[in-house]
UniProtKB/TrEMBL annotation, chain B:
Record Gene3D superfamilies: CBS-domain (3.10.580.10), P-loop containing nucleotide triphosphate hydrolases (3.40.50.300)
Start and end residues of each ABC transporter domain: 2-236
Pfam families: ABC_tran, CBS
PANTHER family: GLYCINE BETAINE UPTAKE SYSTEM ATP-BINDING PROTEIN YEHX, OSMOPROTECTANT IMPORT ATP-BINDING PROTEIN OSMV
Chain ranges of the CBS domain: 255-318
Organism encoding this protein: Halomonas icarae
BP GO terms, sorted: quaternary ammonium group transport
Official protein name in the record: ATP-binding cassette domain-containing protein
Record keyword Ribonucleoprotein present: no
Taxonomy of the source species: Bacteria, Pseudomonadati, Pseudomonadota, Gammaproteobacteria, Oceanospirillales
Residue intervals passing through the bilayer: none
Keywords, comma-separated and alphabetical: ATP-binding, CBS domain, Nucleotide-binding, Transport
Length: 393, 318, 243
């Protein structure tokens, strides 16, 4: 086309070149004869041979070419290439395992190396970038990830020797239990904080003094580091459960779910109360004035106007709180509350990094999933309120 | 009919509205004007009991408003405000149907009424009914606001700077529409504004307020010709008052029958204002204009002397 | 005037004094701690004295946070300049998505890559601490009234002058709030570093949990809590004087 040329996109080539460098010059993975001995690291070329290594770089070069003249269809090609690279990721590990794993050693295992993790990271960044450029809706992105996951599932069959899977193999039951426990603690704390938080926010709206006091207290609580708060709750709860039989009968003790739940609740209250309060107070006065001016009763104004308008912001609070609680519950494992954090700290204690991953990866996935789901729900509700639709003159 | 009898409102030690008396007759459009903080919005809100008055009495159709339940009263009185106060989470149709639903009209009747109002205010149903307020332009939102105020067919309409946030062109358009609407519907309207041109253009009765009191009230022309004091004079435009008067006087009032003299080339519509006629003379550098009707047929003529009214006080033009 | 100025310092100073008293109190805190753990053989954390742990904790947080401020504010400035604008959407999205990552998970993931000890913790804290700073700096710089920017340009200010004299001062409160969040989170996360072999204020807590000694836990927990409160109220003070 004459005259008008799309500006060169510098983000995609930057990411592609960085990915290329780390992919080729950092270890793809390692192979260890058993759990204790550190493994031998393999670069990509050593792991799968030069010719295949070169093949694996072709899509990255394709990305460079696309970025030179970025058009909408060009970005679509780039997205396809990125998804292809993502889907192929586990196959390189499987190839490495196939070529270098000693079949004589049943304990031998494949560790994932820096090149692999970084490639995953760069590709995620590419996905985010391309999604923004293409203005792709969330569900379309999720849909495009389905073939990637299918690819991973397929590759998983050839990766029984992956250290992560071997760690899981011995602990399937414990893993399931920890997962359930984690979810229960998070769900309980968030649910409880939603009820309590709403009540506190309503009380705060009644009196400015309660408002000041409440926020001061909750801010104070939020500032105290989680490890310290868990620790500080240990002593009084231990004392209480020793004094009152019914408490210990309930399972309350210094160690375990009780201090974890209390601390989680305390931390969850601030974001919940803050968002609920702001949501209820932040409704535009003109709207409320009009509602009253039209002859709506107090109850009608609250139920039909204030509450629905506040809902997206309240949901935002639930999202922040849940994501935060997922992370904090991991810390709670230190005081015996169970959950996925158990694997993290066990792994750190035994210097078994794959066990750490077994705990950390699901936590991460959980946090991201909750963030995405609740975020999408909030946007949907907001869309109904028309705030994302923009003005059409 | 709305009657205010020495109505007073105090906020703490401050008197916002100080013993004002005012009668707005059925079918009249009464504009409350004054500087900000003069109590005009407070006065308006006391009429539908969004604010309760402390002293005096407010009567609607002869009955004191305290006899009504506040909510019932407000459902009987239309209310439109500057920020439109449209509910952002409701569609246009649902917003307009608010009061009828509050009054428990059957659903079919509500729908019918909503469509009727949308047609009345020039909002095509298929295009706008399902839109949300954030998708509307300022002028469209304001129309929806007015439609909502009219929904339950109230006799009385209270409007608090309903066109305040709009650009001049949209505002003028809506003013014209409101005037047409009023000619057809004959509501009793109390209208708060700080735009003097708007007040002069719309009002049957102009009420000037200052520091909680009514300084002067009457027909716009009366106030323009005989302002009670310097405050009213300056509020009404100071030295520009003459031009404002010209802006609300139609050409027909100063038109003379066609004279045997040569018909002037420049022509002006019968509905135009003297202000527009002056502007035309200025532009065309002439002293006389032919006045024409809708079919462009000359019906009379108007001269510069006629416009400035020299002939009125001195007797006949020579 | 002076009285009001002093009053603002009361909260941070109180926490600081309490912190120092507890850290250096040593022997004469023993009876108090004994009360919480009457049967234990010892109630004072024996591995290192609390002041050393406090200083190590502060050291790690200070290094990580200072680096995070330099890198974070720098990166946000870069991507809001015309030359770096290409990267703005990506950086903004990563900064907000990254905060979804739980600090524990970040710390735990840093260990396999970087190994045990102090440096991995500093790197993990730096990475995690970057996010709120980048996010807030971006919000501050992007949220400026376009009228101000235009006026500055219209008066003939250069790009650098606009940045230093208009954009950064106006965005300062938001940036400072980001730094405050970052430092608060870092203090908490650094304590978790004790589980990956760092010796700081988290160590007594971990030791206490492992040995079932509440007195150790109390010492660590109180000190971390006081440290967090002192630093946080210091920031609160800064932000108030800023306005």
């Amino acid at each position: 086309m004459p005259g008008r040329e799309a500006p060169v996109n510098r983000v995609v080539p930057t990411l592609a070149v960085t990915a290329l460098v780390t992919w080729l010059w950092l270890p793809l993975g390692s192979i260890a004869p058993n759990r204790i001995v550190p493994g031998d690291a393999y670069l990509l070329a050593q792991a799968v041979g030069w010719s295949l290594a070169m093949v694996s770089c072709l899509p990255l070069l394709g990305l460079l070419a696309v970025a030179w003249r970025p058009t909408r269809s060009g970005y679509r090609v780039a997205l396809a290439l990125t998804l292809l690279l993502l889907a192929a990721l586990p196959f390189w590990l499987a190839l490495m395992a196939q070529q270098h794993l000693d079949p004589e050693l049943p304990q031998a295992r494949v560790g994932i190396g820096a090149a692999w993790w970084l490639m995953l990271f760069w590709l995620s960044l590419l996905l985010i970038e391309l999604r923004t450029r293409l203005a792709l809706a969330g569900w379309r992105l999720a849909l495009s990830l389905v073939p990637v996951l299918a690819g991973w599932w397929l590759a998983g069959k050839g990766l029984e020797s992956l250290a992560l899977r071997q760690e899981l193999a011995g602990r399937e039951e414990a893993f399931g239990e920890a997962l359930v426990q984690h979810l229960l603690l998070v769900g309980g704390a968030v649910g409880m904080s939603l009820l309590l938080g709403a009540a506190i926010a309503l009380a705060m709206r009644q009196s400015p003094r309660v408002e000041r006091l409440g926020f001061a207290l909750l801010n104070f609580l939020q500032t105290i580091p989680s490890l310290a708060l868990f620790g500080l709750l240990l002593a009084p709860l231990a004392w209480l459960s020793a004094r009152f039989d019914w408490l210990s009968a309930l399972g309350v003790s210094g160690i375990g779910w009780a201090p974890a739940f209390l601390a989680l609740l305390g931390y969850s209250l601030l974001p919940m109360v803050r968002n609920t309060f702001v949501a209820l107070s932040g409704v535009e006065p003109g709207v409320l004035e009009a509602a009253r001016g039209m002859g709506m009763s107090r109850g009608q104004v609250f139920r039909q106007v204030r509450l629905p308008l506040a809902l997206p912001v309240v949901l935002e609070g639930v999202r922040i709180t849940t994501v935060q609680a997922i992370g904090l519950t991991a810390v709670a494992a230190l005081i015996g509350a169970g959950g996925l954090g158990t694997f993290i700290f066990q792994g750190l204690g035994q210097a078994a990094m794959d066990l750490v991953l077994l705990g950390a990866l699901p936590i991460l996935a959980m946090a991201l999933a909750v963030d995405a789901l609740l975020g999408a729900l909030t946007r949907r509700l907001d869309h109904r309120a028309g705030q994302t639709t923009g003005t059409i003159e | 009919m709305i009657e205010l009898k020495s109505v007073t409102k105090r906020f703490g030690s401050e008197t916002a509205v100080d013993a004002i008396s005012l009668t707005v007759n059925r079918g009249e459009l009464c504009a409350l004007v004054g500087t900000s903080g003069c109590g005009k919005s407070t006065t308006l809100r006391m009429i539908n009991r969004l604010i309760e008055h402390d002293g005096g009495e407010i009567h609607i159709d002869g009955r004191p408003i305290r006899e009504f339940d506040g909510r019932v009263l407000r459902r009987r009185i239309g209310y439109a405000i500057q920020s439109t106060g449209l509910f952002p989470h409701w569609s246009v149709a649902r917003n307009i149907g608010l009061v009828p639903r509050l009054l428990k009209w059957p659903a079919a009747r509500v729908t019918e009424r909503v469509e009727e109002l949308m047609a009345l205010l020039g909002l095509p149903v298929e295009q706008f009914a399902d839109k949300y307020p954030a998708q509307l332009s300022g002028g469209q939102a304001q129309r929806v606001g007015v439609a909502r105020a009219l929904a339950a067919d109230p006799d009385i309409l209270l409007m608090d700077e309903p066109f305040g946030a709009l650009d001049p062109i949209t505002r003028e358009g809506l003013q014209v529409e409101l005037r047409d609407l009023q000619a057809r519907l004959q509501k009793t309207i109390v209208f708060v504004t700080h735009d003097m041109d708007e007040a002069l253009a719309l009002a049957d009765r102009l009420v000037v307020m200052k520091a909680g009191r009514i300084v002067q009230q009457g027909r716009p022309l009366e106030l323009l010709r005989a302002p009670a004091d310097a405050f009213v004079a300056s509020l009404l435009g100071g030295d520009d008052r003459g031009l404002k008067e010209a802006a609300i006087t139609p050409v027909v009032e100063r038109m003379r029958p066609l004279s045997p003299r040569l018909l002037p080339q420049a022509r002006i519509a019968r509905e135009a204002t003297l202000h527009q006629a002056l502007a035309m003379m200025f532009r065309e550098r002439v002293e006389r204009l032919a006045v024409v009707d809708d079919e462009d047929m000359p019906v009379g003529e108007i001269s510069l002397r006629g416009i400035v009214g020299a002939g009125l006080s001195e007797g006949r033009d020579r | 005037m002076i009285a009001r100025c002093l009053k603002r310092w009361v909260a941070p100073l109180t926490w600081l004094v309490l912190l120092l008293v507890l850290a250096t109190g040593g022997e004469w805190l023993e009876p108090l701690l004994r009360w919480s753990e009457p049967e234990a053989r010892r109630v004072l954390y024996p591995q290192a004295d609390l002041l050393t742990l406090l200083l190590r904790h502060l050291q790690v947080v200070t290094i990580a946070s200072s680096l995070a401020v330099v890198v974070g504010v720098g990166a946000a400035i870069l991507v809001t300049r015309p030359a770096g604008r290409d990267f703005l959407p990506l950086v903004a999205q990563v900064a907000s998505m990254g905060q979804t990552f739980p600090p524990v998970a970040v710390l735990a993931l840093a260990v396999p890559v970087l190994g045990f000890g102090t440096w991995p913790i500093i790197v993990a804290l730096l990475l995690y601490g970057l996010l709120p700073i980048v996010r807030n700096t971006l919000a501050g710089l992007e949220g400026l009234d376009p009228g101000v920017e235009e006026a500055a340009r219209g008066m003939g200010m250069g790009a650098a002058q606009r940045l230093w004299q208009v954009e950064l001062p106006l965005a300062a409160p938001v940036i400072l709030a980001g730094i405050r969040t970052s430092v608060t989170v870092n203090i908490a996360t650094a304590a978790l570093g004790a589980t990956v072999g760092a010796s700081n204020l988290g160590a007594p807590i971990i030791a206490g949990i492992v040995n079932g000694n509440t007195a150790y836990i109390l010492q660590g927990a109180l000190l971390i809590g006081l440290l967090a409160l002192a630093v946080d109220s210091f920031f609160a003070h800064l932000m108030r004087t800023d306005q």
